[in-house]
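[job 4471] stage=fold_predict status=RUNNING
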Amino acid sequence: MQTVKVWDLPTRFFHWLLVASIAALFVTGKMDDAIDLHGKIGVFVVPILTFRVIWGFIGSTYARFLQFFPTPARVLAYLKGEWRGLGHNPLGALSVFALLFLTALQTSLGLFSFDEISFHGPLAALIGDDLAIRFTGWHQTLAYILLGFIGLHVASIVFYRFVKKHNLLLPMLTGRANVPENEPSQPARGGGIPALLLALAIATLALWAACGTWIPEPPPPAVIETPTW
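[job 4471] inference complete, writing structure tokens
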């Protein structure tokens, strides 16, 4: 076996930071007195996802979306046992894209939510209370759908570990994977400091946008003066 670099440090850091954030969101989402913290964590997820999207275009080899995009040909080859490669396999890639999409959708709904009691999303003022209340209902429903996809993702990791004897978790911790020497493998390249700084800058801009501090305050209600007579 040979050891090959697969996952760069930014990809691994993003992965575990998102895992911790989603876990915290599910916990705080069930606690009535933690709704403010829930909202702040949700805002924090925005730059995390933004960074991953940008990194999917300018990051290192196996972090790039085009490298593991699950085309029908790749999925069919994998189902036939003919696919060879490093990083996400085609079925794993489907899971990655689904989780990224659902997390982004769930986070966006949260930013525009209004529960009529104690929580007013940082961007809810842009759409009005009626639509914000509707978004809140969708946000609550989608949470269970997202949880189901996360469960499938974890189950597949367990399946690969104990049935197919392929540890998918360890490379996401160490960045390196064990590959048979008779299989061609190229270590991850690219994703240097300039790319990292650019992705961080865009993620910071996304954080500012998600906070909603740029939204002007609504004008105070008009004061109707009572006639003195």
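[job 4471] summary: The first helix runs from residue 9 to 29.
[job 4471] exit 0
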